[in-house]
Amino acid sequence: MPITVEIKAHCKNQDRVREILLAHNAEFKGTDRQIDTYFHAKLGRLKLREGKIENNLIHYFREDKKTSRESKVSLYKTDPESSLKEILEKSMGTRCVVDKEREIYFIDNVKFHIDNVNGLGKFVEIEAIDTDGSIAKDKLQEQCNYYIKLLEINAKDLISQSYSDLLQQNSLFNQILADE
Question: Which part of the chain is the CYTH domain (predicted)?
Fold first, then answer.
């Protein structure tokens, strides 16, 4: 099971992040409009990602904390033309849908996302990834911390929740305001 050490942060200056990544020879993989459908999972989180670059069923366990955190991830490549989404919706029910535009970059084993999330705003993510057990967790932590500093991410901008959690909180807040 791949292990990832990651952070997510609000990003006021995506142009600056992009500039720093390119100055450090990051490989730009492309811009992907992704629809992440989260399902009611008994353990961990389960989402189906639909995009032009990435199409996966993703199951993961992760603590919700603002500092860098470890995720244990299982990925299953999916066929965008399959009926998997319909089957999951009928059997498990949809918890939340996240619609985002994502720029994807890599430097070695570290993946960077510059995200514009509908209903939430602008973010940056750093994922130091060990796909085969060859990188110590401490090394992944070091990589993540290095890029937090390099990308000039302020600790106050770090967030602990997933986009789905933030959208659900916004929805609940808006419902409370509507009920008043």
Answer: 2-169
